[in-house]
Amino acid sequence: MTINTNVSALNSNRILRRISFEVTKASARLSSGLRINSSADDAAGLAISEKMRSQIRGLQMASKNSQDGISLIQTAEGACSEIDNIVQRIRELAVQAANETNQDSDRENIQKEIDQLVSEIDDQAKRTEFNTKKLLNGENLSSLKSAEDGASVITDKSEIKAGTVTFTAESVTATAGAAGGLSEVQSKILEWLNGSWINDSLSQIESQTGLTLLNDINFEVRFSSSMSALATMTSYSSGSEYILTINQNYINGVEPDFDENGPVIGGNYLDRIVAHELMHTVQRNNFYNTSQNSMVTDFPQWFSEGLCQAINGGSDTHFYNSPGLQSSIVNGLNNPNSSPYDMGYLAVMYLDNYGGVSGGIKDLLEDIKITKSFETSVENVFGQTPAEILAQMKSEAAADFEGFLSDAGVPNLGDRTTSYALNGVTGTKDNIIDNTGGAAAFDEDGNIINSGGFAIGITWPKSTTGKPGNNFHLQIGANAGQSINITIPNISSSILFGDVGINVTTTENAVKAIETADNGLQYVTEIRASLGAYQNRLEYNISSLDVTAENLSASESRIRDADMGKEMMRLTKANVLQQAAISMLAQNNNAPQSVLQLLA
User: Fold this and answer.
1) Residues 6 or more apart from 516 whose CB is under 8 A from it?
2) Are residues 15 and 595 in contact, defined by beta-carbon separation less than 8 angstroms?
3) Bridge partners of 470?
4) Stretch 187-198: mean pLDDT, rounded?
5) Model confidence at 434, in pLDDT bands (50, 70, 90)?
6) Of 519-523, 540-544, 585-589, where does the model show the most confidence?
7) Do 336 and 347 touch, CB atoms closer than 8 A?
8) Any idea what the Cα angle at residue 82 is, between residues 80 and 87, rounded to 5°?
């Protein structure tokens, strides 16, 4: 029997503390309704729950964004509806004026109403706003506009500001850079890019490889004085943002004289280099895994560069005829990556013409999409490994050089005036890629006197419908990149009816005005149809977001929220045990009192 250490009381006190802690936890859960009130309650569960909460709040805000987008669209569509009614009335008046029962004075009175209606169209376009943002008057137009889409042609090249040009699938924007204008050669390069280089290069890529761009891409055109390559194409991790950088040093000495086929850079036609770089872009666009931030297959350098060279016919990397040409090629095939442009070109051409394989490179690229492996697909399509095919090429070149060149489809390898591309495409170095973009002529003062189709505005690919318009970026998802761009074309009387406008003062003009009004009606209804399509898409998006947010909320609730019934059971149990522990502690505290009986 001891009095200094009351073991029974210590035990009761320890148990009481533990039970009191349970009472506190159960009370906190019942008070907050949450199972996890601090990270100590469930560290892993808290981390998962917080990620889910972030996603849920993002989804809810994205749903609100989509609703705001619908409101914006409805505002624009409502204004378009009224403009539609005005154009309908203008057409009605034009039909009336076309009738020979009218006097000239009658037509003049009709013209007065038409003039007022035309002015109202422009006023409505200017007045239509959403959150102070203009919707229909083109206030937020990109600073570049296509001449073919109704923009004004440049009259002074100083109007072209230095900076970067961003090509997109529907429109182009430019960010003003350093003061001053682009040089003549830079302006012409942009003109040729727009005129034919891009579209023709992509057309050649599709016909020769079967590859197309899988999604819209943006790329900026820059001019650099601190690079060694003629041009480069670099990309961001998204696989849809690219920068085409052209070596300024190579074009400095070109202006103002141009070859009839375009700026000649160091003996290389720039359009060929653009085609080469666009092939790199298409490769990445087709074989890039955004989630893994890497290519789905690792092309050997000789294949990647050789494929790009083959697109433009390889004329700019052909070997010159020389006594050492044959040995140079034979030795180079030992390691084609040591000379990926030259050897790669030959190897790709050889594969494309490989005996017994009808599709050549097209079949190979299609198979790579399935296997995600260059080595596997080469063996699948050609029946041999890349190493075996390269060894066969080397052996054939050493034994029968002319036969090897013929098998590769490049019988005049040393002739730099002839181009040999994939699928048997041949021609001169000037016609594999169409490099005639429409030459702009400048007078002695530097003013453009013949635009050749070049204006402050580049659209790629060429827009088939609509005019330049306001662009609105809508964040319609919880994560970066989950967005759409809405374009609301510019509406004005000059766009609807042309510069001539609507004139019904004569019967002949009135008849023409009916056709003009029909064109205006078609334009407005196309815009309304486009806006309706946007709205329908956003409505479906809202439904999807709401369902996803609801399901995520249910999942997060199972992790984070408290089961109130279960917690009440725990609290009741803990309260009873707490009272019992307090009672036992009191009794155990009195146990040493029994020592006094011995003293008595």
Assistant:
1) 94, 497, 498, 500, 502
2) no
3) 488
4) 68
5) low
6) 540-544
7) yes
8) 90
Give residue 70's region: left, alpha or beta (phi > 0; psi -120 to 50).
alpha
Name the band, by pLDDT with cuts 50, 70 and 90, for residue 256. Answer: very low
Q: What is the pLDDT of residues 528-542, one digit of tens each?
A: 998 999 999 999 999
Counting every residue, how long is the chain?
Answer: 600
Mean pLDDT across the stretch 352-374? 85
> What tokens appear for 84 in the block?
């539609």
Q: How far apart are CA 455 and CA 452, in angstroms?
A: 9
Distances 530 to 76, 81, 172, 466 between C-alpha atoms, Å: 11, 13, 20, 10
Q: Which residue did the predictor score with more confidence, 284 or 144?
A: 284
Question: Looking at the DSSP assignment, which residues form a beta bridge with residue 486?
Answer: 472
What are the contacts of 509-518 at 24+ separation with CB within 8 A? Answer: 510/94, 510/95, 510/97, 510/98, 510/107, 511/98, 513/90, 513/94, 513/97, 513/98, 514/91, 514/94, 514/95, 514/98, 516/94, 517/87, 517/90, 517/91, 517/94, 518/91
Strands 133-134 and 172-181: unpaired
Q: How far apart are CA 242 and CA 283, in angstroms?
A: 13
For 11, 19, 576, the CA distances from 585, given in Å and listed in that order, are 8, 13, 14
CA distance 125 to 496: 12
CA distance 62 to 230: 44
* Per-residue pLDDT tens digits for 152-190: 222 333 333 333 444 443 333 333 333 345 666 666 677
- What are the φ and ψ backbone dihedral angles of 461, each rounded to 5 degrees? -65, 170
Q: What distance in Å separates the CA atoms of residue 432 and residue 345, rounded to the nearest whole number? A: 15
pLDDT of residue 73: 93
- What is the distance between the alpha carbons of residues 260 and 428, in angstroms, rounded to a whole number? 14
The two structure tokens encoding residue 23: 């009472």
Q: Are 513 and 504 in contact (CB under 8 A)?
A: yes
- Decide if 118 contacts 424 (C-beta within 8 A): no
Q: Contact at 8 Å (CB) between 467 and 495? A: yes
Q: Which residues contact 114 (CB under 8 A, 6 or more apart)?
A: 90, 93, 94, 502, 504
More confident residue, 115 or 233: 115
Q: Measured on CA atoms in the order 42, 44, 45, 50, is the torsion positive or negative?
A: positive
